Amino acid sequence: MKKGIFITMEGPDGSGKSTQIELLKAYLEEKGYDVLITREPGGTRISEAIRAVILNREYSEMSPVTEMLLYASARAQLISEVVGPALESGKAVISDRFVDSSLVYQGMARGLGVENVYEVNLRAIGEYMPDVTFLLDLPAEVGIARKKDQKELDRMELESLEFHKAVAEGYRSLHTRFPERIEKIDATLPIEEICGIIKGRVETILSK
């Protein structure tokens, strides 16, 4: 059976990933795909339990290394239990964040180093790298403004503006490193325009 397609959506908080994921899901279903949407950290019982620890605002003392290992652990379970089997059965998988988030948040913004974080995650992701990653590029100030109306921000969202600026810049740096895989899109564009760009890139992949 032909392996499915693996698409990841990345970007700072407030960049509109959820909206574009739902639009992409509808598009792929029209193409005849069985579509699975998942998120990181999360997507399985174990991974969701790890997510609750990572994002708990009471755990402000969490070290960057602990954070990195927890994300990698949640990712390993998600790949083993959900993403890997889905791709092997020919499904389209759309993930709200994947390993690029760790490279940016822990590798760059936390200062652990991209290569170090990637090395830790190799065992978690195995052979499963995205066919394409859509980076919704957004200034940190805009993302924070979009999030301000939430009832309660999680531990990562509560980080300083400087941290969120480092994340936004880190994503741009990652796009420079992997331009063939990562499609950078201005997240301040109209929703329909962003969706059109995403559909165009996915259409190119599906036609190969």
Structural notes for this entry:
The protein is built from eight helices and five strands. With about 210 residues, the chain is of the alpha/beta class. Strands 2-3-1-4-5 form a five-stranded parallel beta sheet, with helices on both faces. It is globular. The chain starts with a strand and ends with a helix.
Largest sheet: 5 strands, parallel
Rg over CA atoms, rounded to whole Å, is 16 Å
Number of strands: 5
The N- to C-terminal Cα distance equals 16 Å
Task: Work out the strand percent.
Answer: 5-15%
**What are the secondary-structure elements, in order, as H or E?**
EHEHHEHHEHHEH
List the helices and strands and how they pair.
Elements: E1 5-10, H1 17-30, E2 35-39, H2 45-54, H3 64-88, E3 92-96, H4 99-109, H5 114-125, E4 132-137, H6 140-147, H7 161-177, E5 182-186, H8 191-206
Parallel strand pairs: 1-3, 1-4, 2-3, 4-5
Helix pairs in contact: 1-8, 2-3, 3-5, 4-5, 4-7
List keywords for this structure.
8 helices, about 15% strand, about 55% helix, globular, about 210 residues, alpha/beta
Concise summary:
By secondary structure, the protein is α/β, with parallel strands linked by helices.
